[in-house]
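Weekly modeling sync, notes
Attendees: S.R. (lead), two postdocs, one rotation student

Agenda item 3: backlog of single-chain predictions. S.R. asked that every request posted to the team notebook include the full sequence so nobody has to chase files. The rotation student volunteered to paste the first one in as an example of the format we agreed on. Action items at the bottom.

Example entry:
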Amino acid sequence: MKIRIILFASLIVLVVLFWVTLPAKKVEVIFCDVGQGDATLVTYKNWQMLIDTGPNNKKVLTCLSRNMPFWDKTIELLMITHGDSDHTGGLTDISKYYKIEQSIYSKNVKQFDLIRTDWMTFEVVNSGLIDDNENSIAGILNYKNTKIFFSGDITAEVEKKLVWQGILKESVDILKVSHHGSKDGTSEELLNVLKPKLAVISVGAKNRFGHPTKEVLNRLKEKGIEIKRTDQDGEVHVIDN
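Predicted structure, as returned to the notebook:
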């Protein structure tokens, strides 16, 4: 009798675990708290895209395990914006525990490429063969009624060029701030065009670079843009309503 009760209780626990980890029916974008680095998980039902992996500190694994069903060990799309270790360092650990179906790097996509599923698009507005900040993948994720600009680590010079060329010309809802809030990015010109309601800064607490800089924070505040920081707010969740 005791064995039957234990087995029945175990079954109930498994059913509850499965139920509470059923894939969400809403799109959710999670800006992971990976310290001084970038990693963003985009998830819908049982489909996931990971944009960058953060540094080699295993924090991206915590983010994935917290925000993906425990039985789902597949990442359908991995995008690496550029090769800096604070964007790629977690890849080795991820590869040990998750199957990656498709990988996109700055060298195998080009400007104006459109990554598409039946519920979202990602338009590449910047990319290049040279693996550095200026050539990192930047683009607009568009789903339902939400647009998010992912900036990689592009510089203010690149931002201005995209604006002046008319490539960036429409507003977005959310800005993933470039290069952790470095003073070399998030230009006035970019903000004037994108007009985001929310800016998310992926940054490590008390980092040696002084990110995010006062210059960037002041520019955002002057335009009345809400600011979320992973060093202060932890994971930042954006859920489709």
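Discussion: group reviewed the output briefly. The longest helix spans residues 2-20.
Action items: rotation student to repeat for the remaining queue; S.R. to check formatting next week.
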